[in-house]
Amino acid sequence: MVGAAVNQQVSIVSDSSIDLPRDELARAGIGIAPLQVAFSTEFFRDDALARPDFYARLKTEPRLPTIAAAMPADFLAAYRKAHERAEKVLCLINPFESCSTYTAAYSAAVVARRDDRIEVEVMNTGRALTGLAAMCLGASDMALRGASLGEIVAALEEATAQVNSYYAPATSEYLERDGRISLYEMNVGPLSGMLPLVRVWGRVAVVGKARTQAENVARVLDLAAEELAGAEAIVIVTHGANPEGAQALAARARERLQCARLLITELGPSAGAYCGKGTVGLGFCPSLQKVH
Fold it and tell me: What is the C-alpha to C-alpha distance for residues 162 and 159, in angstroms, rounded to an integer?
């Protein structure tokens, strides 16, 4: 281990589904293993696919792109780089739509322990995407303040019940193209003429519907306020090529929620493929320093 921050015992790794911008990843010292995105005729690593290009392609694709887990080799590279900052590595993931993410992260951890003597803990957080991004930021804040691996894991476990990710698409087109619309309608009834309210944990779930996106955005804020119950939180507003909508949601989030930090990000392929251009979303995690 070389170049570690003073007193930093743990470094955080995740995959690119958390959609944090590069400058924020650098500030927080979070390592990333990139997802893989397969369109009908082309294949990309997520870190080589600009968000505007993704949404432009999405509109004209004959089918939704396939989003695959990061490769074990990319997790291993992230672990090795993280080890330059701290003795131990904590990998925070959620196997979105499959178990392959955990398999890749864990198999890379085995190699890191065997070949590099790096202690890697892989934690399936039970939360995904934007909410997981907030968890990663909270964990990184604790790590930068010298918290131990056990302290960070305990704080994350305690906070999980108040972590969530909600998305308000501007259209139901992409969920319909997904081919599982009948499953989504089992929860909320017919979606014809309606816009879905999406929650993502380990998979996409439609948890509400409304005539307009604005109504769903208002519901997202109500749910966040209810679930956080006044707790100070890391709040992330995300968007699918809709910066104006994101700014408006961020302003309302500052009014409604106790934001220890508020960050705006661009929604990547994991949820963007299902929700589409124009989506706005909110992810949040109670401040782990307060929880712990």
Answer: 6
Distance of alpha carbon 185 from alpha carbon 253, whole angstroms: 29
Question: CATH assignment of 10-158?
Answer: 3.40.50.10170
Helical packing angle, 129-144 and 149-159, nearest 10°: 140
Helix %, strand %, coil % of the chain (to 5): 45, 25, 30
- What is the structure's pLDDT at 157? 96
| CATH number for region 162-291 | 3.30.1180.10
Q: Which amino acid is at 91?
A: C
Question: Mind listing the pLDDT tens digit for each residue in 206-259?
Answer: 999 999 999 999 999 999 999 999 999 999 999 999 999 999 999 999 999 999
Q: Where in the chain is the domain with CATH 3.30.1180.10?
A: 162-291
For CATH 3.40.50.10170, list the domain ranges present in the chain.
10-158
Q: Phi-psi category of 189—alpha, beta or left, where left has phi over 0 and alpha has psi -120 to 50?
A: left
Consecutive H or E run containing 72: helix 72-83
57 phi and psi, to 5 degrees? -70, -40
pTM: 0.94
* CA neighbor of 220 nearest in space, from 200, 203, 202: 200
Q: Are 141 and 152 a contacting pair, CB within 8 Å?
A: no
Dist. CA 290–CA 218, nearest whole Å: 27
Confidence of residue 177 (pLDDT cuts 50, 70, 90): confident
End-to-end CA distance of the chain: 27
Cβ partners under 8 Å of residue 262, min gap 6 = 235, 236, 237, 250, 253, 254
